[in-house]
Amino acid sequence: MKLKLDVTPDLATMMAAEIAAGERAVTAAIREAGTGLRADWRRQITGAGLGQRLSRTIRSAQYPKGQPSLNAAALVWSKAPDIISAHDTGPLIRSKSGFWLAIPLPAAGRGRGGARLTPGEWERRRGLRLRFVYRRRGPSLLVADRARINTRGTAVASRAKTGRNQVTAPIFLLVPQVKLSKRLDLDRDAERAHDSVPRLILAKWAEGRS
């Protein structure tokens, strides 16, 4: 005795429809989870006082592009990964040369586009030499002698020959290392987004049936 089982055309159509509905549900759920995570990370960054510019480095993309799939995936990343990672992990920062880290003080001013200046750049731009001042207690200093503080609070070269209004201005603090404070918790939002996927898939599947 032989028994042959075939899938009827109506059943095959129903199965194909269910698969298509599943693909749409999974794709829509992954898209919502990915864009939601992007929004959460951006809110974290601005909420930590790191600015809109850094928050806009958070991007998201979905794969495969332009078609539903049961294997849909979302990728959320930053275009400034080193900066984001530093604020997310709170690393200990040391000088690459093994000596000092130079931290600019307000009198140092800024370079083009608001960039922080290194001691060498500062000397070239201001036309003043920096002098090392060792302190047994507290950070050592790089100071500029015979400087003048302008209206913006920046130390510049003084042209006064009499020494009037000339000061010795602290320009950089020198420290062996700096512990950057942890200001972000990106894993928290990522885990929340991951855990939301099954619920979103069910919700999207129900939406497709209504």
Short synopsis of the structure:
It contains 5 helices and 9 strands, in the order H-H-E-E-H-E-E-H-E-E-E-E-E-H.
Number of strands: 9
- Continuous helix count: 5
Report the radius of gyration as a whole number of Å.
Answer: 30 Å
Please summarize the sheet with the most strands. 5 strands, antiparallel
Uncertain segments of ≥5 residues (pLDDT<50)? none
pLDDT average, as an integer? 88
Structure report:
The protein is α+β, with helices and mostly antiparallel strands and 210 residues long. It folds into 2 domains: 110 residues, no CATH class; 87 residues, no CATH class. Helices cover 40% and strands 23% of the residues. The chain is built from 5 helices and 9 strands, in the order H-H-E-E-H-E-E-H-E-E-E-E-E-H. Strands 4, 5, 6, 7 and 8 form a 5-stranded antiparallel β-sheet that branches. It has a two-stranded antiparallel sheet with strand order 1-2. It has a two-stranded antiparallel ribbon with strand order 3-9. Strand 5 and strand 6 form a beta hairpin. Helix 1 runs antiparallel to helix 5. The chain is rod-shaped. The mean pLDDT is 88.
Structural topology:
Elements: H1 9-47, H2 52-55, E1 58-63, E2 73-78, H3 81-89, E3 92-94, E4 101-104, H4 119-126, E5 130-133, E6 140-149, E7 155-157, E8 167-175, E9 177-179, H5 186-209
Antiparallel strand pairs: 1-2, 3-9, 4-8, 5-6, 6-7, 6-8
